[in-house]
Specification:
Blueprint lengths: L17 H6 L13 H29 L16 H41 L4 H14 L2 H11 L8 H23 L2 H12 L4 H12 L1 H17 L2 H5 L8 H11 L2 H33 L4
Length: 297
């Protein structure tokens, strides 16, 4: 019969746990862990290359936008801010128009996408798969084809701007559903809602005090994503929108087609400056999501 002392490991005096015994080799040594430094290094290199690929053209655009004459080279003839001032005077109306449409698209995404995402996540109906497929179908259709199709079917709605608004909603709604449906389908959220209902809370109060706070990060991400996509959408804005009231993406296209490179680059720089805060909010909301979930046991 073995004594308690014999069930202990030789040097440490600690009992041999099953996991520890299984991990040990016949010689009594643990197998060396495979270092993750190689994978981490490859990931960092890939991220760095993506940043260079994205940020380098942006940097060049800002340099050209502040150059007196870019034909003489970067900052040729000296640096100036006159192109930025002139660009702001010309593109300001289109930026305001695009922002107004984008805000309306965000409101429509919340009004339509919120209930639809909850139904897709929680309904056991066999129609959910078909509805989900139809909702994401606009992403599989090229923007030009979608725009021409809308113009062909609803030409009377084009002058009023309703067709432009509807096209933006069709394009952004799948992203809203992708952001909200997984959160609305989480078991923890549904348990919290069930507890609130069991305590006698009405549906509107459960929505305001449980569903929205718990889903805040996903809602923020959906709102900002819909705004950014609508603000920068070119195909629908180019083909559906009347030329008399151009959107910001069309103004950039026209600038590169008919105006000086410095002025077009200045308009691009202003457009990017309008989008950067939106992208930063998206990154911040993702970090909030990760921090609120915390490490898994």
């Amino acid at each position: 019969m073995s004594t308690p002392q014999q069930t202990h490991s030789g040097r440490s005096g600690r009992p041999d746990l099953p996991g520890r015994a299984a991990a040990a080799t016949p010689g009594g040594r643990r197998p060396a862990r495979i270092p993750g430094t190689a994978t981490g290094a490859v990931t960092r290199i890939a991220v760095a290359l993506c940043l260079v690929f994205i940020l380098f053209p942006v940097l060049i655009s800002f340099i050209v936008a502040t150059s007196m004459n870019s034909a003489q080279g970067l900052w040729g003839g000296g640096a100036t801010g006159q192109w930025l001032v002139q660009a702001w005077e010309q593109i300001n109306p289109t930026l305001g128009r695009s922002a107004t449409v984008a805000l309306g698209v965000v409101a429509a995404n919340l009004a339509l996408g919120g209930p639809l995402a909850m139904w897709l996540a929680r309904s056991g109906s066999p129609l959910t798969r078909a509805v989900s497929f139809l909702a994401t179908l606009p992403l599989a259709v090229p923007g030009i084809a979608l725009s021409i199709g809308l113009i062909t079917v609803y030409p009377e709605l084009r002058p009023s701007g309703v067709l432009l608004f509807a096209g933006h909603v069709l394009f952004t709604l799948p992203f809203t559903l992708a952001a909200l449906a997984p959160v609305f389908g989480e078991r923890d959220l549904r348990d919290c809602e069930d507890v609130a209902f069991s305590l006698g809370a009405p549906a509107w109060r459960v929505l305001a005090t449980v569903t929205v706070p718990v889903s805040a990060a996903a809602l923020i991400q959906a709102v900002i994503t819909a705004f950014a996509l609508s603000f920068g959408e070119f195909n629908i804005s180019f083909f559906i929108n009347p030329p008399a009231a151009p959107m910001a993406p069309f103004a950039l296209f026209d600038a590169y087609s008919t105006q000086r490179l410095e002025l077009a680059s200045a308009k691009t720089a202003l457009f990017i400056l309008c989008i950067v805060p939106v992208l930063l909010i998206v990154v911040l909301s993702q970090r909030i999501t990760r921090s609120t979930k915390g490490p898994k046991a």
